[in-house]
Amino acid sequence: MPAAIAASAVTRRFGEIVAIERLSLEVEGGEIFAIVGPDGAGKTTLMRLICGALALDEGTLLVDGIDVRRQAWRVQAAIGYMPQRFSLYPDLSVMENLRFYGNIFGVPRLEFAKRAQELLNDFALAPFTRRLADELSGGMKQKLALACTLIHSPTTILLDEPTAGVDPVSRREFWRILYRISAGGTTIFVSTPYMDEAERAHRVAFITHGAILSLGSPADLKAHLAGEVVEITTQQRPKARRALRDEPSVRSIEIFGEALHALVPSAANAIPAIEARLRDAGVTDAVLRVIPPSLEDTFVARLSS
Amino acid sequence: MSAAAAVSSTVRVDALTRRFDSFVAVDAISFEIRAGEIWGFLGPNGAGKSTTIRMLCGVLAPTSGSAEVLGYDVGRDPEDVKLRIGYMPQGSSLWDDLSVEEHLRFYCGMFDIYGPGEKRAVDRWMERLDLKKRRSQLAGTLSGGYRKRLALACTLLHDPKMIFLDEPTSGVDPLSRREFWDIIVGLAEEGTTVLVTTHYLDEAEHCNELALIYGGKIIARGTPENLKHAPGGGETIEIVSEHNVAILDAVESLPFVRSAGLYGSALHITVAHKEDAAQLKAAVSRLGISIASLEPVTPSLEDVFADLVRTP
Ligand SMILES: Nc1ncnc2c1ncn2[C@@H]1O[C@H](COP(=O)(O)OP(=O)(O)OP(=O)(O)O)[C@@H](O)[C@H]1O
Ligand SMILES: [Mg+2]
Are residues A139 and B44, on separate chains, in Cβ contact within 8 Å? Predict the structure, then answer.
């Protein structure tokens, strides 16, 4: 069976800017593959190349073995693409928007009714089927866009930051849906600015400047972090962070929710130095421990080095 | 000292309500925000956060109830409110074909800042938000993080004492989010009062005070610490396993499980009591699925949020 997505040495330029540079990757059928990277890294360009909305300058790109350059229309029938700014019809209701996308993709009536019910329930939109899209909250619009993308049960979906603005509980539900459809064989290629989401994917690619910086399962990526993470729990986070900013044994120091994470080459060397600095700065409540790195630690480390 | 500066509560909200036809989007909410606070407004999609903010900024009239912002009543004097606050709406408020500097000049005009004052304000905020190098770049070509910086700069030109930020970091990468929060915390340290909404609950840890709104009503309030240790909050158990989803499928409908969800690479399950935690452990071991660990943890704000929204 061919790979669901196979990119080899794909390049795309805009004038002098090289948005995607000799990028290669393979996504297996049924896989949840996440791409993460800083703003402007080329994530959206890559998605638009894959779905044929944008032509590549060099390289080859196959979706289910079909060449995107030669048979873009066949590729487009097989995939669902949810762009960052999905167009909903503001003066159509929630149900009418769904029906509209169902019609475009030729979803049969009976199937439509069942699928629409499922998606509306899963996304907690069922009470609002008659509300105009324009009158939905920001996050509800995003959830409706997702439902429209999934209405024709495509075999591969490309989701560009699908959960931006979606509330935490709905994001949990959304990932349940992704797992369910991936278990059913659908391939999912998703970009996200949320590292805890990338952590749930089967494989993750970090991209910057249009190229892959590292690629692997979340566990692999974390295992390859050079150094260790020291968690510092304190009520005086800004003060503690200032005190550690120019401590030489600390590579980076960032606020992570209610704690600070210090990335250090060696915890054994760094911990006494950190303790001394905090004491001098008058931070007395700090509790230090070495923790396994999160994907976000790994990402921050890769980007700040 | 002006009358407005003398009030210690920057925002005072009393039974504020907004209907759209028969639908009640904001339902008689009351709260106060003290000067210099970073006040976080959390809640599920459609809960009423943006609607509340729009009323507090004087751009949407309340149906009933009242709110005072910087000493002005939002229903009676919306124009006074608008001139004195900064408002960064949800989504984009920028024009793709105007440059960074053109945006800032446009907003100076809106706030009657002209001549040397205009140049000073524009230069100052470009410098502070690191926009100088991009002054002539069109907004449409800025990366997500810089678009948000520009939108923030536009709300700060007239030195407002109170700013309303509606999902300022939505869709921004983790490093830019951190930088953005450094800026917000800096502004608050200088005395600006901040009301901010976010769906990234790790960011909510920066707030002095949080309020959770659901179905137009405020259902919980407190500092991040208070919320995590609130009575009745239950016990949160973290399970680490290769087979998270299978475990989740099996346990989520158990009667003693209050809420459950994937949390990064782990699974978090909230139950009402310690005894239920033991039951959960037994139920998981009966599944015969191998797990790396199962232990009680301090709930994250995300766990608290999920739990409150399920069991209001
Ligand atoms: N102009 C309008 N007409 C009808 N209903 C509206 C209008 N504006 C908002 N609503 C409804 O009011 C409710 C609250 O919306 P609001 O935008 O305040 O939510 P929110 O908490 O900001 O959500 P999100 O996190 O998704 O941004 C929603 O059900 C929304 O559909
Ligand atoms: Mg909103």
Answer: yes
